[in-house]
Amino acid sequence: MSQLTSRDHMAMNALLNSPSAAAGGEARGKARLLLVDDEPRLLHSLAGLLKEFNYDLATAAGGNEAMAQLSASHFDLVLLDLHMPDAGGNEVMDFIAARRIDTNVIVVSGETSIDAAIGALKRGAYGYLRKPYKPEELLNTVSNALQKRALEADNRAIAWRLECSERLYRYLVDSSPDIIYTIDPDGCFTYVNDRAQQLLGFRREELIGQHYSVLVHDDDLERARYVFNERRTGDRASRNVELRLKCRHMNDSKRVFQNTLLTISFNSTAMYSFDAQQNRKEFFGTYGIARDITDRKQAEMQLSHQAYHDILTDLPNRTLFRDRLDLAIIHAQRNKAGLAVMFVDLDHFKFVNDTLGHLKGDELLQKVTARFKEVLRRGDTLARLGGDEFTLLLPDLRDRQDAALVADKFLRCLEQPFELDRQEVHVSASIGIAIYPEDGETIDDLLRHADIAMYQVKGAGKNGHSFYHSSMQEASYQRIALEHSLRHAIERGELEMYYQPQVDARSGAIIGAEGLMRWNHPERGLLTAGEFLPFAEESGLMLPISDWMIGAVCRDLHEWNATGCEPARISINLSPQYLERGDFVRKLDQALQHYDIDASQIEVEITENICIRNPEHAIEQLNQLCELGVSVAIDDFGTGYSSLAYLHRFPISTIKIDQSFINEIQRDNGHYPVVLAVISIARGLDFNVIAEGVETECQSRYLAQAGCSMMQGYLFHKPMTRSELARTMGRKVPRVA
């Protein structure tokens, strides 16, 4: 190696005394990390995870605080949440870019949309992790980001030093994070730096003299010819050509070699010497730089996969399903063939979600998906549209019966229970089927008609499948019209409260009544709550309808009180949506004061699942009701996943036995353990107990003998208007001897 000239010494001194040289050539201190999240619990957890890795950690509880710290101090890496109340993660990244702050960013966010990830990467983020993340995934990403930052610092130093001298050039070329090589006109390596061995596992001596094709993947050889035989210089030379190279790594001392592939980005330019005798340039080889972009390609592939797949189940999403359906329709048109589209909706999934929580609901979806995959035919496409809705494409359909067979397999695979949180959970499915081309020739028509057929199954009792028929369209329109009319029912005064008396079966005295909503539909007549409240739940109308119900009940009580005919208590059913989202305690208090109603005349009925889903919140809400003087009853007791450990903590006064258990009572001398157990629980907790749906003398006698004298049902009274209830009050209808 040639000696350094005085000019080279000057360059070396300048290089070694520069800050970048110190950063690249000396041992680096602890990496400084700034953790940014507005959730104190998550921020503390993240700091605890990283603390044991000898990082210098700082935290910020919001975007503004993060920007202040970035202005005042240097940080190697920022772990940044996207959604914060004062300044979001995107604003912080824009601040970093505008101030040209030298730091790297890893976004750690609960945002699941691909647009959020793409937006963060466009703003220069190194990586994007979705909450909840795996600890090892976070630690690897942080380590890789810091390694990337260190390599980039080395690269900057290397690029600057290459200008100094051949001695520095030789040293730094072999220290480069990129593969640097030269090739002769025949395509054989004449020089390869040490990075080739680090990345590919081939020693320099093994490659010198070998043709470049020994490294290139067979499918990329044609493209490699232009890179390794490059004869152009300047702007016309090859830039950022991606090739896959074979990689060989030795595992321990067993000398077992594994062949893998790395994706490498190549930049190459021709090398020429000047022939003075012939006064022309002579090509003598190609010089190139190859950078490992495997991690970037994997990240791009992952982002691309996530753009077309559901993250929870890894099934194709709506976009990919429509693409495949479009191709299947084109294929069917060309080959005069048929295909089927199925719309699959899980029955009772919302019940599981509300009872066991969304995490267990997600686990159930994954287990259902696994069973569905087991019965798929080769070439079928199963996709998840969202929630508990799936779609299935059956191409190359021979006849309708094939679609029916697949639907039956889907239903059968759900017959066995799923185990969630040590409990057996049963779900079924409602499946609608649309056939191409009879039921539609476009994507939208097929999906819409399969959806309509699915709702036909839902209305017929669920757990089945149905083919679309044109007659179903009218029923669908009626459903839409019903929902539309419901939005105007309150303002038009079409809603009305009916009341079903609750009696003491021994004396026949009315001790209270349950308020039941009815809709006086202008065309369909009187509709019960079960005929329209599900639409209200789906369309977000439960809050205004529940507000109306509270006002109507209090108004009716005010009228009864004014005439001296006052029921002992009126029970009202409140929707879980209203309890969780509505400010119902305040509204109920205002209604009681406005109509001058004693709070003891109101009893609020809730389902037991509300208590189990979020017991602490439920206890808080129910305590507020009790402070008003309102009593609380649990409706349909025994139909959900009861937790007796919580039940005794609830400020409850009444338990209502569900009608499904009462219907089982057929003989006076029969044994009905669930009914007896509920009555026993009520006694043990000092609760009142009311039996719902009592329709026979036998049921009434059995319940009375078991210790339950308060009953409600058609045996005593049907639901009636407020005026009918006023006339009925005071009458006794004894039923039990």
What is the overall silhouette? elongated
Unreliable stretches (pLDDT < 50, length at least 5) are 1-10, 19-27, 250-263, 732-737
How many helices? 29
Assigned CATH superfamily of the largest domain: EAL domain
- Let me know the average pLDDT: 82
Proportion of helical residues = 40-55%
Q: Supply the number of structural domains.
A: 4
- Strand residue content: 15-25%
> What is the CA-CA span between the terminal residues?
117 Å
The first-level CATH class of the largest domain is given as: Alpha Beta
Give me the count of strands: 26
Class by SSE composition: alpha/beta
CATH architecture of the largest domain: Alpha-Beta Barrel
CATH fold-level name of the largest domain: TIM Barrel
The gyration radius over C-alpha positions equals: 37 Å
For the largest beta-sheet, the strand count, sense and barrel status come to: 8 strands, mixed, barrel
| Strand line-up in the sheet with most strands | 18-19-21-22-23-24-25-26
Secondary structure: elements and pairs:
Elements: H1 6-16, H2 19-25, E1 32-36, H3 40-51, E2 56-60, H4 63-72, E3 77-80, H5 89-99, E4 104-109, H6 114-122, E5 127-130, H7 135-161, H8 166-175, E6 179-183, E7 189-192, H9 195-200, H10 204-207, H11 221-228, E8 238-251, E9 256-275, E10 280-292, H12 294-308, H13 318-335, E11 338-347, H14 349-356, H15 358-374, E12 381-386, E13 389-397, H16 400-413, E14 418-420, E15 423-425, E16 428-436, H17 443-459, E17 464-467, H18 471-489, E18 495-504, E19 510-521, E20 525-528, H19 529-539, H20 542-562, E21 570-573, H21 576-581, H22 584-594, E22 602-607, H23 608-613, H24 615-628, E23 631-637, H25 644-647, E24 654-657, H26 659-662, H27 673-684, E25 688-692, H28 697-706, E26 710-712, H29 722-728
Parallel strand pairs: 1-2, 1-3, 3-4, 4-5, 16-17, 19-21, 21-22, 22-23, 23-24, 24-25, 25-26
Antiparallel strand pairs: 6-7, 6-10, 8-9, 9-10, 11-13, 11-16, 12-13, 14-15, 18-19, 18-26, 19-20
Helix pairs in contact: 2-7, 4-5, 14-15, 17-18, 20-22
